[in-house]
Design brief:
This protein is mostly helical and about 900 residues long. The strands form 4 sheets. A 3-stranded antiparallel β-sheet has the order 1-3-2. The protein has a 3-stranded antiparallel β-sheet with strand order 4-6-5. The longest helix has 28 residues. The two termini are about 50 Å apart. The structure holds a DNA duplex (15 and 15 nucleotides). It comes from Brachypodius melanocephalos. Keywords: Activator, Cell cycle, DNA-binding, Nucleus, Repressor, Transcription, Transcription regulation. InterPro entries: E2F, E2F_WHTH_DNA-bd_dom, WH-like_DNA-bd_sf, WH_DNA-bd_sf.
Length: about 900
DNA sequence: CACTCCCGCCAATTA
DNA sequence: TAATTGGCGGGAGTG
């Protein structure tokens, strides 16, 4: 990532390798020449010999293979050169690290060194992410190929994918124009819209969604068959629109790339397994899909995925399903697209700092619907046929040998059929498994379930989270665990913290889960608004708190597992089943506590009313957390660019908080940044939950945030201090209300959540809350809208890390959080707060600060996001979504309680 | 052995 | 017709 940044930042372009340059120059210069210049020439010249080159040569001599092709040699050289000379950068660096390659080995470039992903990074390093509008950067394929030392064919692979995202455009033969990421958000937005149309519809209505999912699931399962049906669609090839043709182009890597991206954008979980993607993308649809075809598709997807990974839009993860692990990719790019991506850089106020963005996010959904065609040529997606098409594909694939895929899908199906069932299943699993994985997976599932509805795509289980974490990237850090537990939204962050096993996990875990909770964590909100607490990290810290809570919290790491499990297990079923978490409601206290413990993470408190405020969303308290996340997301969106976020994340894997911080937002309040780390570090320590407290006044009219930094406390202090343990990282208070509200955070709450919380947490918290402000419901948590589902999404961790993009939609976040919350405590259920609303509505002005929140959100989101996302999408699909989802949740919540 | 995915043949397109 | 694009899938590298 660093590298990327660098490259971006840096000089615009090229430059790069000296040696290369030389050679290039020739080529390069041609900028205009449309024609290709000469590959030949280039090749021949291998001039730039570097020391390494010599080695290589020797090596090559040694190996016949090498010898054979001069080309290769040449290629290599360049590469090497580039590596060495150039930027050794990170890219290589990274690579190197990974492989550890090294020097020696250079000789024979390992396969990794020749990977498309690496190649793509090198390619991207040559151009500025955000080139000045004025200058047009032309790309000569030949030049690039020679510089990078690869065959042109490979460059096509990269360029085609980049072209699908409009990062480049073809101007002439051998000539491409580099646009950079300026339009990336727009492109993604369009894709999202298109994706919703095609795939999304499914989601649109819940029912539909379910159905769709259902279908998907079936399809997947079946695999097979025929495909029969298929009526659907074809959208697959939009372009084709013309369809006609189709010829080759239809199958084009470009289209596949766009569709692949769409799947991510539509997916609630933001995770797409290769097999599912392959099935869906098999345009043909026809069933046929032979196995071979499937394999081919997968190969292509790997190619695309490598490029997207280099762009920082997705990352490799593994989804654990019943069957086992499946390779999958998680979207880490921006989820929402404000109008412009640029935001990152600077939005002008106009854009609305936060609100706007956030809002934008929210809005997006709506918008999405509208747009479509943007894609232009390549993009042409068929809008039509969305659902069906998807299904077909799925079905079509049928053959699918890979049942696994199906399996995952299956889950989804189930979900579709009934989330509840799924939930139940999950729970069961969870319980059974209790084990970590299980938990994770389940969680994921749950989330998925929840989300399921939304998209089939989302199918992927979260479980992978851990895997996610795995990612080399920073993300890995936290997320991992947490992710799993989406439910815990908070946890996520926490979990990450937790992850530190070292931490007192024990303490957290079991101990006193409750303890902490009780004490601290509270938030009082005045009316309306919601608060979010994120705590993540701290859990560890919380340990203190924890004792009660601590257990949980700390445990996080383990916790995460634990948590989920706990939560999941216990509640999971409950939760899972309905997003609403009614279950929780049922047993409020105890369960909650328990759950909470498990959770750990964050809790949100929402005022009772909030929902109202929130409006539709509000409904379910569950949403609270989710809501928060959402907000966060929004913020994220606003400010950060995905990439950035990513970076940040990477950098700090920390928790959400950290992430948040990075984000701009952090309002002043955020002081904590450091804290965050600390918190983590401290895990044990009491903590500091990072909080941000945003004063209402501050501008965020709508929100108040507390961030981990303990500091927040001030405001919050009440609780916070007490809460010490709380991990709550953040509290967000949306709505205007906030202003009015005092927020109280209890640090603990996270912890509380998790563990035992209930009592402690929930109880305490809830109580507090309830008492304090919320009385109404108890519920501590509020979820915003969607939250509903949220429940669980495990993903969280990831998100956090990646805050940037992760952003899922609010929904996801919310959901998660919500879910988490809900899960945790019944309390949550209580009100659904809608974060979103808060923000939006009240918000008057969001300030930049809000942005931060976003980060926070991200955190939260992550966890929850998975599940939610779907919901969101759905929602999005229709504006209704808000309402609907919200409503649902509300209903659920209400019901559930019932 | 499964997962990745490099490599490059060769067909479709384009100039 | 030659060159450019790019689908495709064998099979090798990696773990």
């Amino acid at each position: 990532e660093n590298i990327f940044d660098r490259s971006r930042m840096a000089p615009k372009t090229p430059i790069k390798n000296e040696p290369i340059d030389l050679s290039k120059q020739k080529v390069c210069t041609p900028e205009r020449n449309p024609i290709t210049p000469v590959k030949i020439i280039d090749r021949p010249q291998p001039d730039p010999w570097t020391p390494t080159a010599n080695l290589k040569i020797l090596v090559s001599a040694a190996s016949p293979d090498m010898r054979d092709r001069e080309k290769k040699k040449e290629l290599f050289r360049p590469i090497e050169n580039s590596e060495q000379s150039d930027t050794p950068d990170s890219l290589q660096y990274d690579i190197v690290d990974d492989s550890t390659v090294d020097e020696f080995e250079k000789q024979r470039p390992s396969r990794k060194q020749k990977s498309l992903g690496l190649l793509c990074q090198k390619f991207l390093a040559r151009y500025p992410n955000y080139p000045l509008s004025t200058e047009k950067t032309t790309i000569s394929l030949d030049e690039v190929a020679s510089v990078l030392g690869v065959e042109r064919r490979r460059i096509y692979d990269i360029v085609n994918v980049l072209e699908s995202l409009h990062l480049v455009s073809r101007v002439a033969k051998n000539q491409y124009c580099w646009h950079g990421r300026h339009n990336l958000s727009q492109t993604l937005k369009m894709l999202q819209e298109a994706g919703e149309l095609q795939y999304g519809e499914l989601m649109t209505s819940q029912h539909k969604e379910q159905d769709l999912e259902y279908k998907f699931g079936e399809q997947k399962r079946e695999t097979i068959p025929d495909s029969q049906d298929r009526p659907l669609l074809d959208f697959s090839e939009p372009d084709c629109s013309s369809a006609s043709a189709n010829s080759r182009k239809d199958k084009s890597l470009r289209i596949m790339s766009q569709k692949f991206v769409m799947l991510f954008l539509v997916s609630k979980t933001k995770i797409v397994t290769l097999d599912i993607a392959a099935k869906i993308l098999i345009e043909e649809t026809q069933d046929t899909v032979d196995h071979s075809k499937f394999k081919t598709k997968v190969r292509r997807l790997y190619d695309i995925a490598n490029v997207l990974t280099s762009l920082g839009l997705i990352k490799k993860v593994h989804v654990t399903e019943e069957r086992g692990r499946k390779p999958a990719f998680k979207w880490i790019g921006p989820v929402e697209f404000p109008e412009k991506t640029d935001e990152l850089r600077g939005h002008s106020p106009t854009s609305d700092p936060l609100p706007g963005t956030q809002r934008g996010a929210c809005v997006q959904y709506q918008t999405s619907a509208t747009g479509k065609q943007r894609f232009t040529r390549h993009a042409s997606f068929n809008s039509a046929q969305p659902c069906e098409a998807t299904r077909r594909r799925v079905s079509s694939e049928p053959n699918s040998p890979h049942q696994e895929k199906q399996a995952s899908i299956v889950n989804s199906d189930e979900n579709c059929s009934k989330m509840i069932n799924l939930a139940a299943v999950c729970r069961q699993k969870i319980e059974e498994d209790t084990g970590n994985k299980a938990c994770d997976t389940e969680t994921i599932l749950n989330s998925a379930k929840n989300s399921n509805i939304t998209l089939p795509l989302s199918l992927l289980p979260v479980s992978g989270d851990s895997d996610f974490c795995v990612n080399p990237l920073p993300q890995a850090v936290f997320p991992v665990v947490q992710a799993d537990v989406p439910s815990f939204s908070l946890p996520i962050g926490i979990s990450s913290q937790a992850s530190h096993p070292s931490t007192p996990a024990a303490s957290k875990t079991e101990n006193g889960k409750p303890t902490l909770v009780p004490n601290q964590p509270f938030l009082c909100f005045p009316s309306s608004s919601l608060f979010m607490l994120c705590g993540g990290l701290q859990e560890n810290n919380s340990s203190e708190l924890l004792p009660t809570a601590g257990d949980l919290g700390n445990g996080n790491a383990e916790a995460q597992a634990a948590v989920p499990p706990t939560v999941c297990q216990k509640r999971s079923s409950h939760k899972c089943s309905s997003p609403s978490a009614p279950v929780d409601d049922e047993e409020p206290a105890p369960k909650k506590q328990t759950l909470e413990h498990s959770f750990l993470p964050l809790s949100f408190v929402v005022p009772k009313e909030p929902s109202e405020s929130s409006k539709a969303e509000s409904s379910p308290g569950s949403g609270c957390s989710a809501a928060v996340h959402l907000e966060m997301d929004r913020f994220d969106l606003t400010s950060p660019a995905a990439p950035e976020a990513a970076n940040k994340e990477s950098i700090k894997p920390l928790d959400c908080q950290e992430q948040e911080k990075p984000s701009e937002n952090k309002d002043p309040d955020e002081p904590p940044p450091g804290n965050e780390h600390i918190s983590k570090e401290n895990a044990n320590q009491p903590f500091q939950p990072q909080y941000l407290y945003v004063q209402p006044t501050a501008g965020l009219s709508s929100f108040n945030f507390l961030f981990s930094a303990n500091q927040a406390p001030g405001a919050i202090s009440l609780a916070a201090n007490q809460m010490p343990s709380l991990s709550v990282p953040c509290v967000m208070v949306p709505s205007a209300a906030l202003a009015s509200f005092p927020v109280v955070c209890s640090p603990s709450f996270t912890s509380p959540l998790s563990p035992a919380p209930d009592g402690s947490f929930s109880a305490a918290a809830s109580t507090n809350f309830s008492v304090s402000s919320l009385a109404s419901t108890t519920p501590v948590l509020i979820s915003t809208t969607a939250v509903v589902t949220p429940k669980v999404s495990p993903a969280p961790p990831v998100d956090p890390q990646q805050p940037p993009h992760p952003a899922l939609h609010l929904s996801p976040v919310l959901t998660r959080s919500c879910s988490a919350v809900k899960l945790d405590s019944p309390v949550c259920m209580g009100h659904p707060v809608t974060l979103l609303k808060l923000q939006q509505p009240s918000s008057a002005p969001l300030t930049p600060k809000s942005i931060r929140p976003a980060h926070h959100e991200a955190f939260f989101k992550t966890p929850g996001s998975l599940g939610d996302p779907v919901a969101w999408k759905k929602n999005e699909g229709n504006q209704t979504r808000n309402a609907s989802s919200v409503q649902r949740r509300l209903e659920i919540s209400s019901t559930s309680p019932d």
